[in-house]
Structures are given as C-alpha cells and as structure tokens.
Amino acid sequence: MLRQVAISSLLALLALPAAARTRPHYGGTLRIEIEGDPWQQPNGLARRLTLDSLTRMDANGTLHPSLAVQWRSENDNHRWEFRLRPGVHFSDGSPVTSVSVVTALNLACFADCPWTAIHSAGASVVFTGESPMPNLPALLAGDEFLIAADAGGNIGTGPFQITGFTNGVLTLTANENCWQGRPFVDAIQIQVHRAIRDQWLDLSVGRADLVEVPPEQLRQAREQRLTLLESPPVTLLALTVSNSGALGNPDLRAAIALAVDRNALSNVIFQKQGEVTASLFPSALTGYAFLFPTERDLNKSHEKHGGLTPPPLTMTAEGGGAMQLAAQRIALNLHEAGFNVQLIAAGGTHPADLALRSLPLPSNQPRAALEAFLRGAGIQVPVLADNPASLYQVERDFLENHTLIPLLYLPRAYAVSGRVRDLRLDADGAPLVAGASLQDRIEDAP
C-alpha cells in the first residue's frame, strides 16, 4: 500500500512541470511580421486587435453579442434596434455611447450602406431601411463596421491599444480595461512590409513569433516542418470585369470567363492549395458550388465574341509574387482566346478593364455573405430567402453578368514559434491573438 502511495506521489510530482508548461500565463511581447499594412481594409491585423463591432460571428456561423448585447427588428425588418453593452469605454477613456457608435458607423459607411438611415436613441442604435434588412445583425459583424472613436480608426474598445510606431514596427499594448478582459500578452510588435523570405528567416532564428505563409508556399512550409496554423478556404481569388467601354458587350465578358484556365492557376501558381471554384463561396459553406462549371472552354469563348477581334484590354493585379504570376497566366489564357491584354500597374489614373483581386469571405453565414458580395458590386438588393435553392438562384443571376469571375478559394496560414501557446484562427482566418499566451520558461506550480 505504501509503495502504491509513493509511486502515485512521484507521478504527480513529475506531472507538475508538464502542466505548468502548458498553463497560460500573463506577460511577454508577441512579435508578428506581415507583408502588408496592419490597417488595411479588410482584414487589417491591427484593426482586429484594437476595434470591436456591434455583433460577432463565430467559426460555426453563430451570431454573438459584442458591443451590442441584444437586438430586435420591427416593421418586417425595415427597422432594427441594437442595445449597447453598458459601461464600455474606448481605450482613451471616453465612454461608448449610441452617439459615438452612430458617428463611427457614418464614417465607416457613408455610401452604399445596408441601411438607409441610422440614429441614436438613448442606449440604443436604430437602423432604418427603405428595403427590408433581414441580414443586418450578421452584416454588422463584418470588418468594415468596426467601431472607432476617431476618424483615423486608431482608438477602439479591443483587447489592445496603440502605443507607438517606429522604424516600421507598430507597438500595441494590452488594454487593461477591455470589456472582454485583459489579454494574456503585455504587448504586440507588428513589423510591417516585411518580405516573406525575411519573415521566415526571423522565425527560424527566434526574432519573430508569428509570420505569414502564403497559400503558394504552404507545401514548402510543411517540408520545412514549420508549425502551421491553417484556415479552410476563406479568400476568393477573382477577376473583376468592367461592364462599360470595351467590355460593355456581355458576350465579351462571357468569353473572358470561358477562357480562363482555373486548373492551371491552381496547379502551377498556387501549388494545388485551396479549391478551384466558379462560385462566390467555398463548397463546404453552401453545398452547391459544384453546380457552377469551372472547366475552360476555348471553343465556346471564340464563339461568344463571334470571331471578331476584341479591343485591347488592360489588367491589374493586387499584391505581388503569386498574384502577378497569376495575372500573367490569365493574360496568356485570354490571348489564346483572341484577346489582347496589357498588364499595367495598379492605382493608375484610368481604371483597368480587368483586375485580379483577393476578396475575403465576408461572412460564414451564406445569406449575409451573398448580400455583402452584391453590395461590393454596387447591387443594393437584400437577400431575403435563406434556403440553398434560392441562394443559388440569386448567385447565378449575379454571376451570369460576368462582372466578377470567381477563380480559386484559398486558405490563410501562419507559422508560429515554439513559445506561442493557445493561438487559434478566427472564422475568416485571422489570428485570435488576444487568447494566445507566451511560454518562455517552465514555471513552478502553485
């Protein structure tokens, strides 16, 4: 009996360091490196760490309270009232009021909003619309409707607050008074505009804790045995097509859609990561993406423009690296279909006829996501039905105009250092840094 007790005690003592090693604790600075701008819209990392929205969507597509604790609709979804969480303050100490929320949302969305008007009513924010707004609570969870106290979008209610920007490094510190509770790490340093190669090098020598892994480099990252966090397909690679000027003819736009070789883009440029698609959504979200044909049809493309030589076209591509290579591949596809396409730099004085873009999935709730895609295309039509057959019909009607041609759905991925604990990705692939902690040493158990 005494021998059993002694063995049990020894096992318990041996288990304590392992338990302490994995227990989250407060402190430390998390070092992140990114290629882009932490304030970009959408999906800017700093925006997500410092700002909150009225509602929040989890990975299962379930809506949760955030700065609003409850909401209700009236008049057949033409009026919505959102009651604000009491006692919440911005990081500068000013209170979150219905007036400040209305001001923030008017700055965030001054045109093409899902609502017609917005006003404050005591502790509530009221939205009204000329058309019904059945998807408004889900839409308000989107990145574009984050609430800031200032026009620059720098002061929010999130788990971190801005404390400095020096030599390309943005420093955020823990918001001690955050309504969600204090995050585990004391600070975050985000080094911006850092090349992927340099990010990986810094990770390997211990100068970075979280770095980006582009989809086309996921296979290489696995071969190097990096510790990866990878999302499902959440980023749509799409070709936007002008419907004016040279491409005002819908048959020419249809010919372009038929000429693009999606499989070559997937296999050659993006190393078979993600999924080939002709739908606005990844297949797992709706179940009907397979109904949109993805195969290239050069013969049909030639038929669509009737053998006539289409006018010269211009095309831009967002981002560098793989996006530029993909644009070159698409230009070659279109040349084989009889189009003359010139690649030009983005941001010129004249808009391009074609643009290769990365579009984040706006919501993992299909109806809200479809409405957001339509709004992005300038179509202010609420999506009323919530069954797959009706959603498919709305999506098909939109895509048959060929002003937006879906090509691939790609994942988002990151590599992390060994000292990062409990880091997960949000539904859109963004890292949930507020829930992560750092483990620099084995702590003594209490």
Descriptive terms for the model:
single chain; 446 residues; alpha+beta; D-Maltodextrin-Binding Protein, domain 2; Dipeptide-binding Protein, domain 1; Dipeptide-binding Protein, domain 3; 3 domains; six-stranded mixed sheet; four-stranded mixed sheet; 13 helices; 21 strands; 28% helix; disordered N terminus; disordered C terminus
General description of the model:
The protein has about 450 residues and is of the alpha+beta class. It has 3 domains: about 30-40 and about 160-230 and about 415-440, 3-Layer(aba) Sandwich (D-Maltodextrin-Binding Protein, domain 2), CATH 3.40.190.10; about 50-145, Alpha-Beta Complex (Dipeptide-binding Protein, domain 1), CATH 3.90.76.10; about 235-410, Dipeptide-binding Protein, Domain 3 (Dipeptide-binding Protein, domain 3). It has 13 helices and 21 strands. A 6-stranded mixed β-sheet has the order 14-18-13-17-15-16, with helices on one face. It has a 4-stranded mixed β-sheet with strand order 1-10-9-8. The protein is globular, with a radius of gyration of 25 Å. The model is unreliable at about 1-20 and about 440-445 (pLDDT under 50).
